[in-house]
Design brief:
- By secondary structure, this protein is α/β, with parallel strands linked by helices.
- The protein is built from ten helices and 15 strands.
- Strands 6-5-4-9-12-14-15 form a seven-stranded parallel β-sheet, with helices on both faces. The protein has a three-stranded antiparallel β-sheet with strand order 1-3-2.
- A hairpin with a 3-residue loop joins strand 10 and strand 11.
- It is globular, with a radius of gyration of 18 Å.
Length: 267
């Protein structure tokens, strides 16, 4: 669980495993459909409707026709929208670090998905020379459907319901046979002592494997991740080449990175 100093938890009630999984999916996607969740989790639509109603009563989601969106109050929804805008800004800033040709690895996660959505803003010649590799089915499907880049390669393994990504030994084995020019990696925490951290150990192992096979690694994460520590370590802060992040008033963050060979790339 993330350790936060400024942001309170959305509700004090502890969620059961399925409700927690559903809430994490809604946090990532912003909006979910009842039918899609039922298929994904292997339960009935009636069960999903009851789960969404429970989350709605707790003030965690807003029920809409056919599904739910994140948060129930307009103030919180506005905060979510602001968070999406930050992710989009970070994604666009990442475009300048794409190589002119070569292989780019896109991580799983909402900011990586935003990056997939803006790749079309690169010039056509540059896009056509790109090979994208990912273990996130949603990222691969979007890029392949849009024909945004020269080729898309999907890393395969069991899909983790919490992260909606392919994780496990088969995924790691595939990754370790490849080489990537740059890895755009998502994290849930960045701390001077704990380093880059994540909330899922299987996902963290995949990230570590990709880092070991990448010439460069750039972190995609907003400044709220600073001095947050999540469940499992990925790597020390100094293991990355740069952090693409929104501008922040947290002076100690800039002071910390001045002592490291990691570039703060402000979006």
């Amino acid at each position: 669980m993330l350790r936060k100093h400024a942001s309170p938890e959305p509700a004090p009630i502890r969620l059961g495993p399925r409700l927690q999984t559903i809430f994490e999916i809604i946090e990532r996607q912003g909006t979910v459909r009842t039918k899609e969740l039922a298929t994904q989790l292997g339960v009935s639509e009636m069960t999903i409707r009851r789960d969404l109603e429970d989350l709605g009563r707790q003030g965690r989601v807003r029920r809409v026709h056919g599904g739910a969106t994140l948060f129930a109050s307009s103030d919180k929804l506005g905060g979510h929208e602001a968070n999406v805008i930050r992710k989009q800004t970070i994604a666009r800033a990442a475009l300048q670090y794409f190589p002119r040709g070569g292989t780019v690895y896109l991580d799983a996660g909402s900011t990586s998905m935003e990056l997939a959505r803006v790749i079309h803003e690169l010039d056509l010649v540059r896009r056509n020379s790109l090979r994208i590799v990912t273990h996130a089915p949603a990222v691969a499907t979007y890029l392949a459907t849009q024909r945004s880049v020269g080729s898309v390669h999907q890393i395969g393994d069991e899909v983790n319901f919490a992260t909606l990504s392919a994780v496990g030994p088969n995924a790691q084995e595939q990754i370790l046979r490849l080489h990537f020019d740059i890895f755009f990696m998502g994290v849930r925490g960045a701390d001077p002592v704990a380093g880059w951290t994540n909330n899922d150990s299987a996902e963290a192992k995949v990230k570590q494997a990709v880092m070991s096979r990448s010439s460069e690694t750039y972190i995609l994460a907003d400044s709220s991740k600073w001095r947050a520590i999540s469940f499992t370590p990925i790597a020390p802060l100094g293991a990355a080449n740069g952090w693409i992040v929104d501008r922040t008033q947290q002076q100690d963050m800039e002071e910390t990175f001045k002592t490291l060979s990691v570039k703060l790339c402000f979006a």
